[in-house]
Amino acid sequence: MLRRFILLSAAVLCFCSLQASAGERYALVVGNSNYSHTTPLANPGNDARVMSSVLTEAGFEVTTLLDADLGSMKKALLKFGRQLRGEGVDAGLFYYAGHGVQLEGENYLVPVSAAITSEDEIDLEAVNVNSFLRVMNSSNADINIIILDACRNNPFAGSARSAARGLAPVDAPKGTIIAYATAPGDVALDGSGGNSPYTSALARAISTGKGRTIEAVFKAARSEVLAVTQERQVPWETSSITGDFYFSSQPVPAALPEAQPENSAAAAPSSKDIERKYALAERINTRGAWQAFIDAHSDQPDSFYVVLALEALAALEAEAARVQRHLPLPGVPMAACHQGYFGRIPGELCVSSELPDQGQNSYTGDMMSDGRLRTAWIEGRPDDGIGEILRFSFGGPVDISRILVANGYGKSWDIFTKNSRVRSLEVMASNGFRASVQLQDKSEAQVLQLPALGEVSWITLTITGIYPGTRYRDTAISEIQLQ
Questions:
Q1: CA distances from 207 to 199, 200, 275, 290, 297 (A)
Q2: Which residue, 92, 196, 267, 363, could crosslink 84 as a Cys pair with Cβ 3.0–4.6 Å?
Q3: Cα separation of 336 and 354, whole Å?
Q4: For the chain, which domains are there?
Q5: What is the separation, in whole angstroms, between the first and last Cα of the chain?
Q6: What is the 3 state secondary structure string of 154-166?
Q7: Spatial contact of 322 and 365, defined as CB atoms under 8 Å apart
């Protein structure tokens, strides 16, 4: 008994010493979904809520900002920077999900209120990431962490001609790690479920990564994103940190359990603890999160929450099996990809070529999802457009009943006749559907004469015939909607 008392006392003293030396952890989490003047995003709000919950579990004092305008974002960033300049700060973390824009090597985070009509306005309407890095550079924190799930494609492509795909690489200031949802210059997926692939994977890696260094946590997240997106999205980090940082504490020393009294009720998790962990797994809602919860409570197989977790895991497994019944995404080389809403259905559209910008006019693939007939995608190879491919992908099965196409370049009748238009398409889908369809030579939206496709995770449209233009050989499409 005396030996146990001494061990317990030593453990308590050690724990108190660790607590006294541990500093404050501050996090600012921003999720922008409901944009007023550009394409809304389905998941950043959900992503921010999940990340806030996970960081709170990891000991951060979290400030969460949803659908923030420019003023709110700048005030929150200012307050956050001042928190980091306080004494005894262990870590500062800034997380952002939403639209991001790269212009001339500078990265900008876009508030929901931004109404950008020219690239010259981006610096006034959005938050410059480099300016914020300068604020964090004066931090007293041992480590600064910036996580940007903001690499969706440029939402103001029609007005910002110099803006590039994705985000630009940025050198991390001393003691800082910057994590991107995808590689510099590439575009990340918003996701067809409740969260983006990157945030879902990162939240799981943080919550289940007890004892892992921060580098190992990001590596685990990257592995999951590569698997989920079939290697179309590669998370990226740049770092200047030198020490080790852990989101969650390292494993408790083996001597500590020996010091606890036998048959101690404290060894059993409380019902509130189980409920809290279940709620966290429910918010993350990945197979890994549910399995981690079930493994942690394997000694209570009849627990109400364990039974619910097993049912949730079984449902995800069934969904995964359903997804695997679909054909893999075709590996055809694509020139460019764009995130957008096609009708009411969000997804990614990749095109096999694009006509380069002509003066102030742009002819990229996202012109087919901007809701305007006066803009158009135009294929960019020196031929008549036959063989060009449009590929829609959704991240998971969605039910498609109709496809509507506004043929040609509908800016005016003169422009419509000068450019070539689509005469016929070959339609293929992930569920094995394949058919040819004829299009009418008109600019108004027309429903393709196809049966309902049902659940599909991707669709390709290949141009097999054209109506030749009177002046240009390039083939155009003004708009595509999926229903």
A1: 12, 11, 15, 11, 15
A2: 92
A3: 8
A4: 2-239 (3.40.50.1460), 268-324 (no CATH), 336-482 (2.60.120.260)
A5: 73
A6: CCCCCCCCCEECC
A7: no
Tokens of 456: 């599909």
Query: Are the C-beta atoms of residues 119 and 159 closer than 8 Å to each other?
Result: yes
What are 251's two structure tokens?
């494993």
Hey, is 47 helix, strand or coil?
A: helix
Residue 343 is classified by DSSP as B
Instruction: Classify 35 as helix, strand or coil.
Output: coil
* CB neighbour burial string for 404-421, b if at least 16 within 10 angstroms, e if fewer: bbbbbbbbeeebbbbbbb
Question: Which has the closest alpha carbon to 378: 415, 345, 404?
Answer: 415
Q: pLDDT confidence of 292, banded at 50, 70, 90?
A: confident
pLDDT tens track for 14-26: 333 333 335 799 9
Position 167 pLDDT exceeds 70: no
Q: From residue 326, how far is each of 11, 194, 215, 398 by CA, in Å?
A: 55, 21, 34, 12
Q: Average pLDDT for residues 365-376, to the nearest whole number?
A: 87
Q: Two tokens at 18? A: 């660790």
Q: Is there a contact between 120 and 179 (Cβ–Cβ < 8 Å)? A: no
Instruction: List strands edge to edge, sheet with 24-31.
Output: 61-66, 24-31, 89-97, 143-149, 176-180, 236-239
Please give the pLDDT value at position 318: 66
Host H or E run for residue 337 = strand 336-342
What is the C-alpha separation between 101 and 185, in angstroms, rounded?
10
At 214, the pLDDT band (50, 70, 90 cuts) reads very high
**Residue 375 half-sphere exposure toward CB, CA atoms < 13 A:** 18
Predicted confidence (pLDDT) at residue 463 exceeds the cutoff of 90 = yes
Distance CA 149, CA 47 (A): 9
Instruction: Summarize pLDDT for 94-142 with one digit per residue, the tens.
Output: 999 998 888 777 888 999 998 887 777 888 999 988 877 877 778 888 8
CB 92 within 8 A of CB 83: yes
Provide the token pair at 281: 């797994």
Q: What is the mean pLDDT of residues 151-176?
A: 54
Residue 315 CB partners (closer than 8 Å, separation 6+): none
Amino acid (one-letter) located at 116: I
User: Which pair of structure tokens corresponds to residue 136?
Assistant: 């964090």
Written as six digits, the tokens of 338 are 């764009």
Q: Closest Cα to residue 129, out of 164, 79, 173, 90?
A: 173
- Residue 253 half-sphere exposure, CB side, CA atoms within 13 Å? 13
pTM score over 0.90:
no
Burial 4-19 (b: 16+ CB within 10 A, else e): eeeebeebeeeeeeee
The amino acid occupying position 356 is P
